[in-house]
Design brief:
The chain has one domain: 3-Layer(aba) Sandwich (Rossmann fold). The longest helix has 29 residues. It is of the alpha/beta class. The chain is globular, with a radius of gyration of 17 Å. The chain has a 7-stranded parallel sheet, sandwiched between helices. The N and C termini lie far apart (35 Å). The protein is built from 7 helices and 7 strands; from the N terminus they run βαβαβαβαβαβααβ. Helix 1 crosses helix 7, helix 3 packs parallel to helix 4 and helix 4 runs parallel beside helix 5. It binds NADP nicotinamide-adenine-dinucleotide phosphate. The site of NADP nicotinamide-adenine-dinucleotide phosphate (NAP) has 30 residues, from helix 1. NADP nicotinamide-adenine-dinucleotide phosphate binds next to helix 1. Belongs to the short-chain dehydrogenases/reductases (SDR) family. GO terms for molecular function: oxidoreductase activity. This is Short-chain dehydrogenase/reductase SDR. Keywords: Oxidoreductase. InterPro entries: NAD(P)-bd_dom_sf, SDR, SDR_fam.
Length: 247
């Protein structure tokens, strides 16, 4: 039963939607107390209600991760509420695609604030408690665009490549204290955030899997890495991409 998560508190950023919401559902179904987070209160409360209806326990912590103050408030609220966060899933992220010339300074700052700085500050705030208790897991959500350059994904891919590097750096830093840090790297997944994404189906058709992925398929991988089933796995980047890594 090493996949069970009873007695553990999980903070899942960006769990009002898409992949994060599916992660929250799978972690709650395995017994974790889940702290749902995002900016949209209606979607946040709805997510919590659906976890509770399914037999889990959850609470909603609103947060805007685009500002450092919002990130720190979220970390403080999570620690106030739960005492410690045993599982941190850095899922919240923004993605946009375009030419280098087309990205404004505001676009650059926003992408890096949410995709890199927010996970960094959360780990800075929450990892010390994990270290103190000698256990904890962190799972970062990357993207295929972090592994190779492509014409329109330089800004987005580079932000997630930074998080990829941090995954291995944090695994090295915190592993000796009993804290495991890993990542999943999703391929094209149909979510609220990608619902209008032109070309996603065409990308999916070219994959070995020949289809888009479902949020729950990413969630299952996150839950595995967060659980004791993955007890000897540190610093791994698990592709959940329909075989894009092999195509
Ligand atoms: N879908 C894909 O094909 C795909 C592929 C590879 C990687 N990913 C990665 O997977 C993660 C989730 O993607 P998704 O497709 O599930 O996206 P989504 O449906 O757009 O969900 C994004 C989540 O992030 C939250 N969020 C966005 N900006 C935020 C902010 N400033 N402060 C706090 N929360 C914020 C949103 O919450 P609120 O709206 O409530 O603020 C929402 O819960 C992202 O990191 C993305 O880069 C996705």
């Amino acid at each position: 039963m090493a996949d069970r998560l009873e007695g553990r508190t999980a903070l899942v950023t960006g769990s009002t939607s898409g992949i994060g919401r599916a992660v929250a559902a799978v972690l709650a179904a395995r017994g974790a107390h889940v702290l749902v987070s995002g900016r949209d209160d209606t979607r946040g409360r709805d997510a919590v209600q659906s976890l509770v209806n399914a037999g889990g326990t959850a609470e909603y912590l609103p947060a805007d991760l685009s500002a450092a103050s919002g990130v720190r408030e979220l970390a403080d609220a999570a620690l106030d509420l739960a005492g410690t966060v045993d599982i941190l899933v850095n899922n919240a992220g923004v993605f946009s695609f375009g030419s280098t010339a087309g990205n404004s300074e505001i676009d650059i700052d926003r992408m890096y604030a949410i995709n890199v700085k927010a996970p960094y500050l959360l780990v800075q705030a929450l990892a010390p408690k994990m270290v103190e208790q000698g256990s904890g897991t962190i799972v970062n959500v990357l993207t295929g665009a972090a592994h190779r350059g492509s014409v329109t994904a330089g800004l987005y891919g580079s932000s997630k490549a930074a998080l990829l590097l941090l995954t291995t750096a944090w695994a090295a830093e915190f592993g000796p204290s009993g804290v495991r840090v890993n990542a999943v790297s999703p391929g094209p997944i149909r979510t609220e955030g990608t619902a209008n994404g032109a070309g996603l189906d065409a990308v999916a058709r070219a994959l070995p899997a020949r289809r888009l992925g479902e949020p729950v398929e990413v969630a299952a991988a996150v839950a595995f890495l967060a659980s004791d089933d993955a007890s000897y796995i540190h610093g791994a980047i698990l592709p959940v991409d329909g075989g894009a890594i092999a195509a």
